[in-house]
Specification:
The complex is a heterodimer of chains A (263) and B (482). In chain A, β11 and β12 form a beta hairpin. Chain A has one domain: P-loop containing nucleotide triphosphate hydrolases (Rossmann fold, 3-Layer(aba) Sandwich), CATH 3.40.50.300. Helix content of chain A is 39%, strand content 28%. In chain A, α6 packs parallel to α7. Chain A is globular and about 65 Å long. With 263 residues, chain A is of the alpha/beta class. In chain A, the strands form 3 sheets. Chain A has a 6-stranded mixed sheet with strand order 6-9-10-3-11-12, sandwiched between helices. In chain A, strands 2-1-4-5 form a 4-stranded antiparallel sheet, covered by helices on one side. In chain A, strands 7-8 form a two-stranded antiparallel ribbon. Chain A is built from 9 helices and 12 strands. Chain B has one domain. Chain B is 23% helix and 34% strand. In chain B, strands 5, 6, 8, 10, 11, 13, 15, 16, 18, 20 and 22 form an 11-stranded mixed sheet that branches. Chain B has a 10-stranded mixed sheet with strand order 4-3-7-9-12-14-17-19-21-23, covered by helices on one side. A two-stranded antiparallel sheet of chain B has the order 1-2. In chain B, a hairpin with a 2-residue loop joins β3 and β4. Chain B is globular. The N terminus of chain B is likely disordered. The chains are: A alpha/beta (263), B alpha/beta (482). At the A-B interface, α2, β7 and α3 of A face α9 and α10 of B.
């Protein structure tokens, strides 16, 4: 593992209620990179995102996850967040009576506290958050509304990206953030990710469709199938998948496996 | 990875911060209730004859009544002969003439509770009447208020110095025949606060009474009466705490409000009586009758309550909307944790034309807590174009608690409109995980979700108390995280 590795997943096996879903995932993400994970339904994409973030209910059956060279499997979800890990949810929750500004202020200050930084006061925070909203072209009333309550699907996803921009994570995992979005919302999501790109950070974009990758150009594309990464390649792989589907990759992987077992 | 479910369900009450006992010599009546007890109380307070008669009448009526069994709460029967009906710190028997004469131990007690009484440290902008067991031990800012013609004193003092007002209004909203506990209170009440706001006066500060039960086995039976004359306004707040004791203690108060034309009373309660321990041992039985009469046209009464304490709560602050265009409001947050039980709500009785009422009730149940909303909206024939809006929301934390809603609606008028909305939700693992993922701890996430749920009620509280209430909810839900 090189020194600039931010997220390193080795032979990760995980499941739910006795059913194994991830069957040995290997993934290495370096600082400055954007990786995309594609794959047919049921291949384990969302499980991978959940396990990285530490969601309860998943059983770890083997392997490891290191974040900035630290084993994070024993850490609570909030501790992982404090290290700089962010997950953009596929289905963001609603919290009535808690406005987005207050929620984000709590989140940012909790993270700052955990990192030994001084908490932002109300004035400094408001200035910071309005600047972020402007960058993402969000209307200001967004900040005053109860978190995700009464938001359209697109608005919820924009809110995820907004929170990501405000929390400035070292590694952001986007779990099918593009699903159900029209082209304008898709551009907002892509814009958010692209603004976050820097030599010190990395992003993992999980998606079902190639079209998001027109706007977020990945360094590496992986195909997740049946709980394993069966192919990795440059950005052109996404276009090939879009044109030809997944069958040829699955077949190729099957032949390779057969060859391995024969030898 | 520890599971958030366990954490949510594992919430246990943190140490009750006000559970200390003040070691002070007290003068008490022997336990038990009979005519002599009442004569003793009345004599102790040097009351005029009319008060003794009033009390005895209530006592005789009480003897004919039965403990109400309709609330959805379960507790062992109360032995009314085992209660001490009068307990007063010695020296303070007649009530001190000025705060300088108050026993330093009492001042210390209130200071520990965050309510400094003496002149130098008293709370800015809030006048306080401090009631300790059966008597009022001191009232701040009395002189400042008197300059505006406002009377703010203990009930004992009001009976002695303003008998004509007491005679006219005491029992006029809650008669002694009203219910079992109101009858009991009428017979044995020992003190409480009295407020009179004259015509056209806007009370320049918050008025507040702080109730403290200290003596063992004693019950607290206070009586509060607030009268707001035409075009007057007052905001009043009560707070309550008690020591941690293993046996249950009874608190049966009566509060009466009367508002004339265009007058307004805003009455807020932050109730934090000792709730008992995790297994339901000890705690206060809080059986209270609160009712306001909107007597004048365009008068207004607004009740706001945050109920986090007590083992059993039985309480329905109500409004009789008699004057045309009068307005009644009820905003409530009731939290039950561990084995706490609450049956609380309101009654809105529309009599005058174009009367309006609003009910917003937020019930939070955690642990094995049981929380019921019980409310009556009654529109009489005379109440043309009356309007009511009710909203009852319940929030469940864990899966061993319960939330119940009992709305009663009686409408005898075709021009009126009634709206009722109710929701029940559960703090979900999804919500907790979402907050966790953003870096917010499970404890803070629960507090945030609960406070968001209560927002509509908290914004009705006076500013400084809204902060207090938020903190109180946090403390009441605090537990072993992880």
């Amino acid at each position: 593992m090189s020194n600039s590795s931010l997220l390193s997943i080795t032979n990760l096996k995980a499941g739910v209620e006795g059913r194994t879903i991830l069957k040995g995932v290997n993934l290495e993400i370096q600082a400055g990179e954007v990786h995309a994970i594609m794959g047919p339904n049921g291949s384990g994409k969302s499980t991978l995102a959940s396990v990285i973030a530490g969601r309860e209910g998943y059983e770890i059956l083997g392997g490891g996850i290191r974040f900035k060279d630290q084993d994070i499997l024993d850490l609570e979800p909030d501790e992982r967040a404090h290290l700089g890990l962010f997950l953009a949810f596929q289905y963001p929750v609603e919290i009535p009576g808690v406005n987005t500004t207050y929620f984000l202020k709590s989140a940012i200050n909790e993270n700052r506290k955990a990192r030994g930084q001084e908490e932002l006061d109300a004035v400094a925070f408001l200035k910071f958050i309005k600047e972020k909203a402007r960058l993402l072209d969000l209307p200001e009333d967004f900040l005053k509304r109860s978190l995700n309550v009464g938001f359209s699907g697109g608005e919820k996803k924009r809110n995820e990206i907004f929170q990501m921009a405000a929390l400035e994570p070292t590694v952001a995992v986007l779990d099918e953030t593009d699903s159900g979005l029209d082209i304008d919302a898709l551009k907002v999501v892509a814009n958010g990710v692209n603004q976050l790109r820097s030599p010190e950070r990395a992003q993992l974009v999980i998606t079902h469709y190639q079209r998001l990758l027109d706007y977020i150009v990945p360094d590496v594309v992986h195909v997740l199938y049946n709980g394993q990464i069966i192919k990795s390649g440059p950005k052109e792989l996404a276009l090939e998948l879009e044109a030809k589907g997944y069958d040829w990759v699955i077949e190729e992987a099957g032949q390779a496996a057969a060859v391995t077992s024969q030898s | 990875m520890s599971s958030a479910t366990e954490t949510i369900e594992g919430f246990v009450k943190s140490d009750y911060k006000y559970g200390f006992i003040t070691d002070i010599e007290a003068e008490s009546a022997p336990p038990g209730l009979n005519e002599d007890t009442i004569r003793f109380i009345s004599a102790k307070k040097k009351e005029p004859a009319f008060m003794l008669e009033w009390r005895l009448k209530a006592y005789h009526h009480w003897l004919t009544m039965k403990v109400p069994t309709w609330p959805k709460v379960a507790y062992p029967p109360v032995d009314f002969q085992d209660i001490v009906y009068y307990s007063a710190p010695k020296k303070a028997g007649d009530g001190p003439k000025s705060l300088d004469e108050v026993d330093p131990k009492l001042l210390e007690t209130y200071e520990k509770l965050g309510i400094p009484l003496h002149e130098r440290a008293k709370l800015a902008g809030v006048a306080v009447d401090a009631v300790f067991d059966s008597v009022s031990v001191g009232t701040t800012y009395k002189e400042t208020l008197a300059e505006k013609g406002i009377i703010f004193c203990s009930m004992s003092e009001a009976i002695a110095e303003h008998p004509e007002l007491v005679k006219r209004y005491l029992g006029s909203v809650v008669p002694h025949t009203d219910n079992f506990y109101a009858a009991l209170n009428s017979a044995v009440f020992s003190d409480g606060s009295f407020v009179y706001i004259p015509k056209g006066v806007r009370c320049p500060m918050e008025l507040s009474t702080y109730f403290r039960i200290n003596a063992a086995k004693s019950g607290q039976f206070e009586r509060t009466l607030i009268i707001a004359e035409e075009d007057s306004y007052v905001s009043y707040l009560e707070g309550c705490t008690a020591p941690m004791r293993d046996e249950n203690q009874l608190h049966a108060a009566v509060v009466e409000l009367v508002v004339m034309d265009r007058g307004e009373i805003k009455y807020s309660t932050v109730q934090n009586w000792y709730p008992g321990d995790e297994d339901g041992k000890g705690g206060i039985y809080n059986f209270v009758t609160k009712r306001g009469l909107c007597k004048g046209q365009e008068s207004k009464i607004s009740w706001t309550q945050v109920e986090t304490g007590s083992a059993v709560t039985w309480k329905y602050p109500s409004c009789i909307l008699q004057g045309d265009r009068s307005v009644g409001e009820f905003y409530s947050v009731a939290l039950t944790n561990n084995r706490q039980q609450a049956d609380t709500g309101t009654k809105m009785v529309h009599m005058g034309k174009d009367t309006r009422s609003t009910i917003v009730s937020k019930g939070i149940s955690a642990g094995r807590g049981q929380n019921s909303y019980r409310g009556l909206v009654q529109v009489r024939k005379s109440a043309s174009r009356a309007r009511n809006f009710s909203q009852c929301d319940s929030l469940l934390i864990g899966d061993q608690c319960g939330a119940h809603t009992f709305p009663y609606i009686e409408v005898r008028n075709t021009s009126s409109s009634i709206e009722h909305e109710a929701t029940t939700s559960k703090i979900g693992e999804d919500q907790i995980f979402y907050c966790n993922q953003r870096g917010i701890s499970t404890q803070d996430a629960v507090n945030m979700i609960v406070n968001g749920f209560c927002k509509e009620v908290f914004r009705e509280l006076p500013m400084e108390f809204a902060m207090e209430a938020q903190k109180l909810l946090g403390v009441s839900l605090e537990g072993s995280v992880g």
